[in-house]
């Protein structure tokens, strides 16, 4: 009988561009204040990429850090998936550009587009490759330059987003098909295209040919997030064969401290088990979960063997969750 294979996260890395934009900086260009932004969102600052620094550059920095953490070399990589909403170019995929910049020889490389849920979606795709023996060293990268999509005259959106990248290395590990296994244990992925008007970019290749600006009905997105993420978390836990009470750490998509708190309260989570980094990088879309994961590993909170639950929600609307034992 062949062994039961799981995909394990063996390395984590992240990168934030140097330039920091504070709430006070934004208050100089739109009618807002540090007080309003902090109270409604928990955000204190965001990072912004240089004009000459495309998404792939952020992805490469995060990928190199994750490979180093895993003790792997670029020559080991046989799959690259980039979750992004802000690709360098319409095509090729940002993953192929990252492959070129890293110097990875021929491998599989493509992008996944599920906006802020992109990292969880990309992880599920990579899990399929790794657990089925089709990849032995996969890079799953969330990389975004959301500031490129902002309408800098719209105070209801431009204060919420930032740029950044996070990456994990996935490798096969033998399991026993029990929740005590190391590696990815279960997913729940969701989309409801009927709600696409709540959060979208008003331009595109096959419509008006523009890049467009992000548009959002903030309070409706907020309501949807708090109500529906909880269901996906419970479904992912059930798929993994674990209970929510067993989870050591929740690593939510970092959109807004009030959403993180609302979901936590709905599920009765201990807030000391919820990782929050939104104050220092704002909403970096598909990059936010690996950025938060990396922060909490580096500061010693999340350790090998911990049971971790990722959850996200974004344009589509898409949402989802993933349970993993590190
Ligand atoms: N500064 C100051 N005032 C602002 C503002 C800003 N940056 N943005 C909006 N306002 C104003 C509005 O114009 C409105 O004024 P009005 O009452 O005179 O019309 C008032 O604040 C309240 O607006 P509202 O949209 O009802 O506020 P809110 O409490 O819902 O907070 C969000 C707005 C965007 C912070 C909140 O809806 C939210 O977090 N939504 C989820 C957004 C998100 O995270 N999306 C990404 C998911 S991936």
Please write out the topology:
Layout: E1 4-15, E2 19-22, H1 23-27, H2 34-41, E3 45-48, H3 55-70, E4 79-83, H4 94-102, E5 108-112, H5 118-131, E6 138-145, H6 155-158, E7 163-175, E8 183-191, E9 199-201, E10 214-216, H7 218-240, E11 249-252, H8 257-267, H9 278-281, H10 288-298, E12 307-314, E13 318-325
Parallel strand pairs: 4-5, 4-6, 11-12
Antiparallel strand pairs: 1-7, 2-3, 6-7, 8-13, 9-10, 12-13
Helix pairs in contact: 3-4, 7-8
This protein binds coenzyme A.
Notable characteristics:
alpha/beta; four-stranded mixed sheet; binds coenzyme A
Short characterization:
This protein is an alpha/beta fold. Helices cover 32% and strands 26% of the residues.
Strand order of the main beta sheet, please? 1-7-6-4-5
CATH superfamily of the largest domain: Thiolase/Chalcone synthase
From the 3D coordinates, which CATH architecture of the largest domain would you assign? 3-Layer(aba) Sandwich
CATH-defined fold name of the largest domain? Peroxisomal Thiolase, Chain A, domain 1
The general outline is globular
- Based on helices, strands and strand pairing, what is the structural class? alpha/beta
Strand content: 25-35%
Order of helices and strands: EEHHEHEHEHEHEEEEHEHHHEE
Radius of gyration: 18 Å
Strands, total number: 13
Integer average pLDDT = 97
Number of domains: 2
CATH class of the largest domain: Alpha Beta
Unreliable sequence segments: none
Number of helices: 10
Helix fraction bin: 25-40%
Q: Biggest β-sheet: count, sense, barrel?
A: 5 strands, mixed
Q: How far apart are the first and last residues' alpha carbons, in Å?
A: 26 Å
